[in-house]
Write a structure and sequence with these properties.
By secondary structure, this protein is of the alpha/beta class. It has helices at 14-25, 32-42, 45-55, 62-75, 91-103, 118-132, 140-154, 156-164, 177-191; strands at 2-7, 27-31, 81-85, 110-115, 167-171. It has a 5-stranded parallel β-sheet, sandwiched between helices. The structure holds adenosine monophosphate. Adenosine monophosphate binds at residues 10, 31-33, 36, 53-54, 57-60, 65, 86-87, 89, 93, 136, 146.
Length: 194
């Protein structure tokens, strides 16, 4: 099995490009944000606890998302790997992921990082709010908190994975969705193979 991490700030295009990457490499796309929104929609206890943190633009506790990830690894069959989107988001999650995979005799094969500047993050999230209607896209203070949370909690992972030697970066801006997707797929194919 192969394990790729799709990395980048909110609005970088991780969800947008995950489908094409997943199809090409027969990998299952797992977005912890989508899994959490499904829990909220279903009105589960987990969803109720997560809702407030998500709508404030804060992170949910590491053990919550790690439980969802382990559950996905245990139950989803029929793919050559997993494409993790929005996880890990803290150094603790990254280290725990290494432990979770080591128990299975597996490892993170590649971190595919999509980079865009903060002003484009804001622009994209404001646009997405009109299309998808996500609660955490709707207010400026939530967007600001998500950008700050990305810089303080998530960005340190870049150094962590650079040191691990499996960090690969592509620009997610400028260009159309198609142009960005081609740039990202070409980068993966050059660095990791087809
Ligand atoms: P996303 O759809 O990836 O933008 O995630 C939406 C929200 O879900 C985030 O702003 C967090 O509140 C929460 N979330 C998603 N993934 C994680 C994670 N790995 N760790 C903590 N919180 C997360």
């Amino acid at each position: 099995m192969r394990y790729f991490i799709l990395f980048g700030p909110p609005g970088a295009g991780k969800g947008t490009h995950a489908g094409a990457i997943g199809r090409k490499y027969n990998m299952k796309h797992i977005s912890t944000g989508e899994l959490l929104r499904a829990e909220i929609a279903a009105g589960t206890e987990l969803g109720k606890h997560a809702q407030e943190l998500i709508s404030a633009g804060s992170l949910v506790p590491d053990e919550v998302v790690e439980g969802m990830i382990e559950n996905a690894f245990d139950t989803i069959k029929g793919y050559d790997g997993f494409l993790l989107d929005g996880f890990p988001r803290t150094l603790g999650q990254a280290k725990d992921l290494d432990r979770i995979l080591a128990k299975r005799g597996e490892k993170v094969d590649a971190v595919i990082s999509i980079m865009i500047p903060d002003d484009i993050v804001r622009e994209r999230i404001r646009h997405r709010a009109t299309v998808e209607g996500r609660a955490d896209d709707a207010s400026e203070s939530t967007i600001t908190n998500r950008i700050n949370t990305y810089h303080t909690r998530t960005e340190p992972l870049i150094q962590f994975y650079k040191e691990a030697g499996n960090y690969y970066e592509a620009d997610g801006y400028p260009g159309t969705i198609e142009q960005n997707q081609k740039r990202i797929l070409d980068m993966i194919s050059e660095k990791i193979g087809d």
